[in-house]
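Take a minute with the sequence and fold tokens given here and flag any structure token that looks odd. Thanks in advance.
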Amino acid sequence: MRRQHVISGPTTRQPRFTVPAMCSKHGCHRVFLAIIPLTFSMLACHSGLLTPAHRVKVVVPPPPPPPPEAARPPLETGRSFLKPDQHEDAGYGLYSYLLLGSPPSDATRSRYLNTISAFLALPKIGSIESPSTSPAPASERPSQGLPRAQLNIAYIPVDNAFSSADEQSADAILTHYDYGRARLLLHSVPGDHPEGPYIVSVLSPIVVTQMVSGHYLYQDLSNRSITPELAYAWIMAFRQQAAKVDYWSPDSFQKFALDARTAIEVVADAYGFAKPAVASWIGGKP
């Protein structure tokens, strides 16, 4: 049977407690001797024998700062084409559409062509997307790429006669542009859209039977004072701003929309346009 050691506090108030006797074998007595003062101090504080002046203040150092996050790769914008029997692929971080409200006229043809040419300067979406999901043929898929959530896919609606041989020609794309589908997509965006080009960016594919809800960015390049050169520079500025976003979410989209507006104002200013005029060309719900 184990012996019990009885430890008493001061005679005025005698909190009593017992602890099992510790064997001295293997140095166990050292543990016992270390526990006694700590236990007694705890009981003394609890019973009021120690005043606040006698109590020990324990300072806990703050936790170390978290390690810095690894730098994220910049987001990319890639182009793709939408035929009448095709739907948008799921999972992309942002969906952008190049929409023309009507066939080109003598006044709009150059602006249409330069805007399409700017889109053609974008890489094909399949060449920058992760090979596990890339829509490109196996021979054209990259060895490494970005996940869809980090990509802005830029769609151009085209008709069924459009072929892969037409993909690098702005004239061929304009010839095979699907104005019917573009009108349906524009019908989902508030406002009137008679000509274009228009660029609509949303966090999920546009549903043609519903009005666009949630966050979206609407860029109106239909003003006839917008030169073909400005239209091209506009698309390049939009692409650069899309690359600066850490990830696509409602919060990041709001900042992206504001930054895109500012960047396009800077570009337009270089072509002699005042900020108020540019503000009327960019709308939506940030």
